[in-house]
Amino acid sequence: TNRTFTMLKPDAVENGHTGAILEKINAAGFRIVALKKTQMTKADAETFYAVHNERPFFGELVEFMTRGPIVAAILEKDNAVDDFRTLIGATNPADAAEGTIRKLYATSMGENAVHGSDSDENAEIEGNFHFSGREQF
Ligand code: GTP
Ligand code: MG
């Protein structure tokens, strides 16, 4: 498909970067299909990140992702998944390319400002986790 899913994580929202990040997403040619500010419960985060539940940082990840509001969005563009991951940069901001969202706004490997789906299949699952069909345009 031509869609991806993103969350502006609690660090980015707390630090007042919501508008600047949405502007970079817009400038990179993504169309907003769905958008909302929300806060995940522990159960939400454990489900959303279930693939990581054996990793040593899982507890920290769930704590972080639930400590404050996020901004969730479904985005549309040709080659959306790969182009969005290029726009956000490497998981660890120390390794992220100049000009990427994580280089600009992430503070650490854990608190890295933004999520981007890693496959078309996960983009659909993740988008539908946060948005009903009648919230997607
Ligand atoms: P997402 O777009 O958020 O999925 O990031 P990613 O695909 O670049 O990384 P990955 O899916 O491997 O990890 C998911 C998230 O777990 C990362 O974005 C980080 O927030 C967190 N994470 C990954 N590795 C570590 C780590 O070593 N320590 C901590 N504290 N968090 C980590
Ligand atoms: Mg990932």
Automatic annotation (TrEMBL):
CDD domains this protein is in? NDPk_I
Enumerate the cofactors the protein uses.
Answer: Mg(2+)
Which Gene3D superfamilies does its entry note? Nucleoside diphosphate kinase-like domain
| EC numbers | 2.7.4.6
Main EC class the enzyme belongs to: transferase
Spell out the reaction equation it catalyses: a 2'-deoxyribonucleoside 5'-diphosphate + ATP = a 2'-deoxyribonucleoside 5'-triphosphate + ADP; a ribonucleoside 5'-diphosphate + ATP = a ribonucleoside 5'-triphosphate + ADP
- Is the keyword Iron-sulfur assigned to this protein? no
- What InterPro entries does its record include? NDK-like_dom, NDK-like_dom_sf, Nucleoside_diP_kinase
Subunit architecture: Homotetramer.
Q: What does this protein do?
A: Major role in the synthesis of nucleoside triphosphates other than ATP. The ATP gamma phosphate is transferred to the NDP beta phosphate via a ping-pong mechanism, using a phosphorylated active-site intermediate.
* NCBIfam families referenced in this protein's UniProt entry, alphabetically: PRK00668.1, PRK14545.1
Protein name as catalogued = Nucleoside diphosphate kinase
Instruction: Say which species the protein is native to.
Output: Polaribacter dokdonensis DSW-5
Gene name in the database record: ndk
